[in-house]
Write a structure and sequence with these properties.
The chain is mainly alpha-helical and 98 residues long. The chain has helices at 3-16, 30-48, 57-78, 82-94. It has one domain: Helix Hairpins (Orthogonal Bundle).
Amino acid sequence: MNLHQLTEEMNKFVASKGWYEDDSPKEQNERNLAISLVLEAAEVLELYQWKGSGVERPLLEGELADVLLYLLQLASVAGIDLENAVLDKLAANQDRTW
């Protein structure tokens, strides 16, 4: 499954919950999705908090999936082709020195 197909599945899920409706209490706009993305990313970090190493794989898988879903949705709502954006960024980073 590619990013486009994952985005379609994510959009079907969100629509099935009614979150794309104009009167939804969970308005799916860029601002709200960006906030949710960062909150989910923080939950990934939280899995590692106060641990020397190793986290429960199913917990990490779930949190990483949440991050990806919000990223896909933010890109979709913003009208960004994430596949092209990633390829463009990789190409730009080829000439970058760290």
